[in-house]
Amino acid sequence: MNRGCTGRYRIQTTLGESVRAFIPAPLPPEPPVVLDGMLQSRLESALLALGRLDSITTLLPDTALFLYTYVRKEAVLSSQIEGTQSSLSDLLLFEVEAAPGIPLDDVTEVSNYVAAMEHGLLRLREGFPLCNRLIREIHTKLLSTGRGSDQERGRFRRSQNWIGGTRPGNAHFVPPPPEDIEPCMSDLEKFLHAEEPFMPQLIRAGLAHVQFETIHPFLDGNGRLGRLLITFILCHRGMLREPLLYLSLFFKQHRDEYYRLLDQVRTEGEWEAWICFFLEGVAVTAEGALETARRLVELFARDRQRIQRQGREAGSMLRAFEALKRRPVLTLPGMCRLSGLTHPTVSAAMQRMERLGIVRELTGHARNRVFGYLDYLAILNEGTESP
């Protein structure tokens, strides 16, 4: 539905140039989103896929095994959209302090994303509301170190920013002036908690994502935080018991369409087109996550059987294997801590699994060796190849 412009413009002078800053109208849209045949069908498909994803705990023997690396895959993908080049393996190596030659700013940025995500989810589990205070806390974690850490972390911006272009005058889009950030974010917070009018929670999450990206309330980190907000809303509203849905891969694969639809919402009020795209992303992403979980379960079962055929050495190998399922990139000391085995026993077990092709030593060093669970990493790395 073409509602026309979904906000108003204010003329601003930024860096000596006159620009039109866009101030979005509060949510929900007026007139309301129309759930016609196509949109209703997409909503039902997304809800069905999300329900299957939420039941993943019945498929996985230990959901934490999946969450540990899946959350990190999302961190890599979301940061890649912002221009980083780190891979999932880079991040896992960084976390075991064995990442020589990796751009430090890139991998630190991804690591901060993991910390921000975990902080937000912990606060929600503790009963803290999804509010602007929590959003600012998450932003503090997101920009705690490295690139962007000097950009007023944890505070709504006090200067004008812009998106695209080399300066305000040729920018693709200019978000609200700084004096409008607090009222815009206050309106968004009210929308997140509103019970009236009734609205499917997936629709609410899709609308809120666009509104946050349009407000662009921080000097840096808006894209990553806006993508995180989707998962936080679904967890906060009880749609997901665990943070299993992340749309960064879908947005990365359809980047041009994603940005085109955001613009179309602002200039034409085409919320339905955006919601249709968003719901497709939810369905595709949820089914993809479920398929990844199935493949991992099959991989674990297959490799466990291979190890069990190793005779009397199988006992220590299986204990080391269980540690690798929890952390697919490990040093030998880390393996000892997780498995409870001695260093010589772990070293021997890893050599045997290396001969089986289950693991590979990643550094090429004789000392301070790091091992990776190859097929596990290959499955999780899908889609994280740098664009």
Structural write-up:
This protein has 387 residues and is mainly α. The protein is built from 15 helices and five strands. The protein has helices spanning 37-54, 63-81, 88-95, 104-125, 132-142, 181-193, 201-215, 222-236, 248-253, 255-268, 271-308, 314-326, 332-339, 343-355, 374-381, and strands at 7-14, 17-24, 329-331, 359-361, 370-373. It has a three-stranded antiparallel beta sheet. Strands 1-2 form a two-stranded antiparallel ribbon. α3 crosses α4 (104-125), α7 (201-215) packs across α11 and α12 packs across α14. The longest helix is centred in the C-terminal third of the chain and has 38 residues, at 271-308. It is globular, with a radius of gyration of 23 Å. The mean pLDDT is 89.
Question: Could you give the topology of this structure?
Answer:
Layout: E1 7-14, E2 17-24, H1 37-54, H2 63-81, H3 88-95, H4 104-125, H5 132-142, H6 181-193, H7 201-215, H8 222-236, H9 248-253, H10 255-268, H11 271-308, H12 314-326, E3 329-331, H13 332-339, H14 343-355, E4 359-361, E5 370-373, H15 374-381
Antiparallel strand pairs: 1-2, 3-5, 4-5
Summary, kept brief:
By secondary structure, the chain is mainly alpha-helical. It has helices spanning about 35-55, 65-80, 90-95, 105-125, 130-140, 180-195, 200-215, 220-235, 250-255, 255-270, 270-310, 315-325, 330-340, 345-355, 375-380; strands at about 5-15, 15-25, 330, 360, 370-375.
